[in-house]
Amino acid sequence: MTDFTVAAVFSNNCVLQRNKNISIFGTAESNSDIVVTLSTKNDELATNSSKAINGRWLVQLPPQVAQQDCKLKITCENKTIEFTNIAIGEVWLAGGQSNMEFELQNCTEAAEELNNPEVNPNVRFYYTNKIGWKDDAFYEAEKNTCWQTWDSEWKKSWSAVGYFFGKQLSQDLDVTVGIIGCNWGGTSASAWMRKEYLEVDSELKTYLDEQEEATKGKSIQQQLDEYDAYVKANDEWQEKCNELYRTVPGIEWDEIQQRIGPTLWPGPKSCKNPYRPTGLYDCMLSRILPYTLNGFIWYQGESDDHKPAMYYKLFSRMIDNWRTDWQDNSLPFIFVQLPAHRYKQDKDFKHWCFIREAQEKVHRTIKNAWMTCALDLGQYNDIHPKAKRTLGQRMAKIALSKVYEVSSNTAISPILAYSIAQNDCCTKNGKMILTFENAEQGFEVRADEEEFNYYKQMEENQNNTVPADFTGFEVAGTDGNYYPAKFTLGDGVSAPKNTIVLCSEKVASPVFARYAWFNYGPVTIFCKNGLPLAPFRTSSNDSAAASEHAAIQQIMEV
After folding, report:
1. CA separation (Å) from 139 to 75, 128, 135, 185, 336?
2. What pLDDT is stored for residue 533 in this prediction?
3. Euclidean distance between the first and final Cα of the chain, in Å?
């Protein structure tokens, strides 16, 4: 017999999506009658019923306007479950890996948000049960999940990006905003997808094949035992690592491993490892489907940098997967383009350049998928930039402009539209004329000396010298060899404001051009509305390729 339950994502304080059919769901014995009623203190707003089929039930209520202090009553035969203090407003899912998971208490703006009694963001948060294997402990823990209001002591653990996104939406839309946290540090997009979306493509299937090869011949119990042993050993290792970070300020990752041994993360490939393909789709995302929401925000890509050439395919398939499962192929998807990042001891592998390029391609080719450029928001020698407010606000401004259409301000960074190579008969020196979308106000140059100095230090560590004429822009001829380029910003008189002209004395006839083609470096070109120019190259036929990827470091420093 299947017990009557309401999905764990429903609780007191939950936020239901306004102006859409509201899906309420759970489990019950097949053929049981389920009745759902939504009401205020004084009035019934809606009621509907259905029967449980194959142990599951789903009831849809008609769309409601934004309001507060509602009650949800679900009845199955002679048993009733009630939830109170329900808000009807806007609901978004915050997905991805550690930079979306990064907690409010750890961000630069934490004290200002958490310790200021005047802050009342009208944001609520639900964190999907974060266990990567369905055992008794999983289901017991899931029962204890619930929606949290700003009064909760656990607000400090909310996603910082999700919080600032929700806070901005609430201020501008004057509604309660609910954020569903569904993220896990260090995860590939393949962990968040159904198997069918990976196995239909030979390249994407490699994620499944690698898992299958690593677990071949091992029983489920053997895999569970191996992973449990890893968790115990890794906890001990991590405790030693944290102690070194506390007692030896500035200690380098390589030295940590010399002192206490190599990192054990991410552990053995097994059916219990949360990083396995499809694992978190099954243990997290599917547990909240089909909760009615208005869109997704997403920050991920770092953990797929070992296969950058296939990231466009992987990411776009994941979006299709999620939209299909929510039965809405136009659900908004607002995602972060990876910021500048590089550990100071690493080479510039340039693999993040290709991840960023794939992310821009998703922006260009997939309906209602919008990219938030974060190139300027990276942090030296740290994969987790601690300042999160600006990023959350940028994502919110895209939602306000593109989803809610309440703002006419350009919310998308300048992106290359097209380029024209032009030879100058007088000087016998060619140039590249670049034209950009979202740059009608024109460009400006901002000094970025600190990051430039870091960039030069990192290159010096690799016995490389940064050219004296470095600008971030480069051009190349037919041989594909790039050289620093001089640039001229369009002034609206001699050239349109949304153009930039490049040239180099070392390249007589430019064929290719690119900007910010590095994992980490100075970011100096901004639109006059404050948004950074997105990195680009004019052609994927320039023979550029990513080398090996950076060594794994710990997911979070404690």
Report:
1. 22, 12, 7, 22, 32
2. 98
3. 44
- How far apart, in whole angstroms, are the C-alpha atoms of residue 300 and residue 315? 9
Percent pLDDT > 90 in the chain is: 92
Cα 296 to the center of its chain, rounded Å: 9
Main-chain dihedrals φ then ψ at residue 299, nearest 5 degrees: -140, 105
* Choice among 11-15, 16-20, 79-83, 424-428 with the minimum mean pLDDT: 424-428
Write the DSSP assignment of 1-50 as a string of letters: -PPPEE-TT--TT-EEETTSPEEEEEE--TT-EEEEEEE-SS-EEEEEEE
Tokens of 470: 């470095």
CA 474-476-480 angle, to 5 degrees, is 125
Alpha helices, H only, 188-335:
195-199, 205-215, 220-247, 253-260, 279-280, 286-288, 311-325
Which pTM value belongs to this model? 0.97
Burial per residue of 249-287, b for 16 or more beta-carbon CB atoms within 10 angstroms, e otherwise: eeeebeebeeebeebebbbebbbbbbbbbbbbbbbbbeb
Tell which wins on pLDDT, 326 or 345: 326
Predicted local distance difference test score (pLDDT) of residue 424: 65
Amino acid identity of 525?
Answer: I
| DSSP secondary structure letter of residue 130 | -
With CA atoms as reference, report the closest residue to 513 among 488, 484, 547. 484
Distance of alpha carbon 438 from alpha carbon 441, whole angstroms:
8
pLDDT in tens, 104-125: 999 999 999 999 998 989 999 9
pLDDT digits (tens, 9 = 90+) for 336-367: 999 999 999 999 999 999 999 999 999 999 99
The two structure tokens encoding residue 81: 């479950």
Which H or E run includes 517?
none
Helices (H) then strands (E): counts for the chain: 14, 23
